[in-house]
Design brief:
The structure is a single chain. The protein is α/β, with parallel strands linked by helices. The chain is 36% helix and 18% strand. The chain is built from 10 helices and 11 strands. The strands form 3 sheets. Strands 4-7-10-3-11 form a 5-stranded parallel β-sheet. A 4-stranded mixed β-sheet has the order 1-2-6-5. A two-stranded antiparallel sheet has the order 8-9. Strand 1 (8-11) and strand 2 form a beta hairpin. The longest helix has 17 residues, at 235-251.
């Protein structure tokens, strides 16, 4: 898809260079209730109402980013994904000064600020990897003020009425605790769990439409057994296992289970073999 929108905009006398939206060939499969909950959080029910800023919570690989992206596209909006890290600085989140080839300073808006200006959807991916200092720069955006201030560019940017935000957060130990004043602004909390057998198989089929039925069924059974054992293997792992097994079978014809076993070992390690169906 070609994005024909202007690449620059002037805010309070300062020209900002905008980011491109993300265009991904994905759609949401299964767990329609969580999609409805996310869309409900973004809904505006009265002229005095404001959209909420939900959090999608769950283990890595359960599809939080896919759900958020699909929800944004369901609204007919451009979607922008911002990958948060422990090194994310406030200026990275907002507006960054860049020296061009002529030695002049250009102000480059992040995907978040671009979404604010364009009325798009921003997905703060793995938001709880960011420090409190970075979150603090977003505090006025997440309440009824709905703006950000860039000290670097010397501008205040007001969010478009159509702007929507969602943060995805992994349920693991390698994250920061959210400060309370941000916690209260990122509501509601929407929990995304592992899919059931039929949904998981449908997701695998969506990602691997060229796979045969037997491979998909074996991998689905593997994932369901892992979930039951409380091992944190995800659909993403299942896609990689099935994809590599299919490549092994194409390269050197062999028994399907032999290909799957080798794929599991090389992707997840030998301890994961106990979940393969016999």
């Amino acid at each position: 898809m070609t994005d024909d929108s202007p690449r620059t905009v002037e805010v309070e006398g300062t020209r900002l260079h905008l980011a491109h939206p993300d265009e991904l060939p994905i759609r949401w499969v299964g767990q329609q209730e969580t999609l409805k909950q996310l869309l409900a959080a973004w809904k505006v029910v009265d002229a005095e109402d404001l959209p909420m800023n939900p959090r999608l919570l769950g283990k890595p690989g359960v599809g939080k980013t896919t759900l958020a992206y699909a929800a944004g596209k369901a609204l007919g909006r451009d979607a922008y994904i911002y990958q948060a890290t422990m090194d994310t600085r406030p200026e990275d989140l907002l507006i960054t000064p860049v020296v061009d080839r002529q030695g002049a300073i250009r102000y480059v808006a992040s995907s978040l600020v671009t979404a604010m200006i364009r009325g798009g959807v921003v997905i703060l991916d793995e938001g709880n990897r960011m420090s409190e200092k970075s979150w603090a720069s977003l505090a006025p955006l997440l309440d009824n003020r709905r703006y950000i201030e860039s000290i670097v560019a010397g501008v205040k940017v007001q969010a478009h009425p159509d702007f929507r935000l969602v943060a995805t957060m992994n349920d693991d130990a390698s994250t920061y605790e959210l400060p309370e004043y941000i916690h209260s602004r990122l509501q509601p909390q929407i929990f995304l769990d592992f899919p059931d057998h039929d949904e998981e198989k449908q997701i695998l089929s969506e990602n691997l439409p060229f796979s045969d039925e037997q491979i998909l069924e074996y991998v689905t059974q593997f994932l369901q057994a892992a979930h039951d054992a409380d091992d944190a293997y995800t659909v993403r792992d299942g896609v990689n296992i099935a994809r590599y097994a299919l490549k092994l079978l194409e390269e050197s014809p062999r028994d399907r289970m032999a290909a799957l076993s080798l794929s599991v070992v090389q992707i997840l390690g030998e301890e994961a073999l106990r979940h393969l169906p016999r």
